[in-house]
């Protein structure tokens, strides 16, 4: 699911089509359409322009927001997975809407330049499936949560590791930054919600790879 930037509409989709758009005030459907195989990932950009989605194809496609909660497909604008393993399950926009992060395979993250439709960087470091990716409010950093029981903080521009947050005892399913960007909140199958100060990676922590 994904909300419109102004919160007035909600997009819902599943493994089976169609996709529905709902008015959040009235609860009524304003539109529905078929995207083929259903959705594996969905996100709305913060600049009130685009919706990114994948229909289990490994290619991220876009709709453009129109008035009244309607959307229009952008057939010439898509990001091809180029070697990722099957479908894309995670999509996150940067705060300025110019950059997109997605999972690539199971344990890597791709950073995309949306306007150029190119991969800017590939980030590696997690040792199990990534479950969540989120940008900091400034757009300079990225948080990822994974089944390896860690939350990792990255420099969104260079892909360098900034922090590895350990403490969860089960897979971590979600991680987000606080509104001021100084803390990270994470939720896990260990039935805990944790609030972290952003800490530096210890000197003896192996540095994950980031490919240009």
From TrEMBL:
PROSITE patterns: WD_REPEATS_1, WD_REPEATS_2, WD_REPEATS_REGION. The keyword Metal-binding does not apply. The keyword Repeat applies. CDD domains: WD40 (cd00200). It comes from the Eukaryota. Gene3D superfamilies: YVTN repeat-like/Quinoprotein amine dehydrogenase. InterPro entries: WD40/YVTN_repeat-like_dom_sf, WD40_PAC1, WD40_repeat_CS, WD40_repeat_dom_sf, WD40_rpt. Keywords: Repeat, WD repeat. WD repeats lie at residues 1-32, 81-122, 123-164, 165-197. Pfam families: WD40 (PF00400). This is WD40 repeat-like protein.
């Amino acid at each position: 699911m994904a909300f419109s930037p102004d919160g007035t509409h909600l997009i819902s989709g599943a493994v089976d089509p169609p996709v529905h758009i709902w008015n959040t005030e009235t609860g009524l459907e304003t539109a529905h359409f078929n995207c083929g195989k259903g959705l594996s990932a969905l996100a709305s950009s913060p600049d009130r322009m685009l919706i990114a989605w994948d229909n289990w194809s490994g290619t991220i496609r876009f709709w453009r927001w129109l008035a009244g909660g309607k959307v229009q497909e952008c057939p010439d604008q898509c990001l091809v997975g180029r070697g990722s393993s099957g479908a894309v399950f995670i999509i996150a926009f940067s705060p300025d809407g110019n950059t997109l992060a997605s999972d690539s395979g199971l344990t890597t993250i791709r950073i995309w330049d949306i306007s150029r439709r190119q991969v800017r960087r590939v980030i590696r470091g997690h040792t199990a499936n990534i479950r969540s990716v989120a940008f900091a409010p400034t757009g300079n950093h990225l948080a990822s949560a994974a089944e390896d029981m860690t939350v990792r903080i990255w420099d969104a521009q260079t892909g360098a590791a900034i922090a590895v947050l350990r403490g969860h005892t089960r897979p971590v399913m979600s991680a987000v930054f606080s509104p001021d960007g100084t803390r990270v909140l994470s939720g896990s199958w260990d039935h805990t919600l944790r609030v972290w100060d952003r800490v530096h990676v210890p000197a003896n922590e192996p540095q994950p790879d980031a490919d240009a």
